[in-house]
Amino acid sequence: MAGQGAPTFLRWEDPIADAEPRLLRLCHRVFDGFDDAYLLDRLPHLAGPSLWLAEADGEWVAFKLGYRRGQTLFYSWLGGVDPDHRRRGLAEELTRRQHGEAAAKGFAHVETRTRAGNNAMIIVNLRQGFHVVGFEVDGAGRSLVIQRKAL
Ligand SMILES: CC(C)(COP(=O)(O)OP(=O)(O)OC[C@H]1O[C@@H](n2cnc3c(N)ncnc32)[C@H](O)[C@@H]1OP(=O)(O)O)[C@@H](O)C(=O)NCCC(=O)NCCS
Prior knowledge:
This protein is α+β, with helices and mostly antiparallel strands. It has helices at residues 20-30, 36-40, 90-104, 119-127, and strands at residues 8-11, 50-56, 59-68, 73-81, 109-115, 131-137, 143-150. The chain has a domain at 8-112: Aminopeptidase (3-Layer(aba) Sandwich), CATH 3.40.630.30. It is built from 4 helices and 7 strands, in the order E-H-H-E-E-E-H-E-H-E-E. Coenzyme A (COA) binds at residues 30-31, 78-81, 86-92, 114, 118-121, 123-124, 127. Coenzyme A (COA) binds next to strand 4, helix 3 and helix 4.
């Protein structure tokens, strides 16, 4: 099992490209069949990226990645927790920190999209104050729930 030390939380302050290798490793832990291109094609183009991390025993075990999508809209894009560290409040703590930063920077809303079948993420979001504001089907035919929160 992965390290069980108490996690610490940090915001990545270096260029986002420098986070790529460790972030990719974590994405492979978090998401089944993760496609590197999903991250690598988008990461360099994110406006004002914000990356929050949880680290335990020197390893990144959870992350939350978002970016500016408009003058007042922050978009929470991607996040996840290593399976060995789930149900310990890491996703909620990273969400709180992401939203705190976005509010401090003057964003009025945060928005996110989640696959409709992903109860865990949708519940975390609801507990953190998001409301369901829409539903859409993406280009690959996947149903997505749109959630938004006033900061
Ligand atoms: C969704 C995810 C990020 C939640 O991370 P987490 O750190 O385990 O969540 P937390 O511990 O902060 O959960 C807080 C609360 O949300 C709810 N919750 C979390 N996971 C849940 C699950 N699998 N089923 C039901 N409720 C859940 C619970 O109410 C939980 O509180 P509790 O543990 O006291 O009951 C994690 O399951 C994950 O990484 N999933 C795969 C990646 C993913 O789907 N990312 C989102 C799309 S980008």
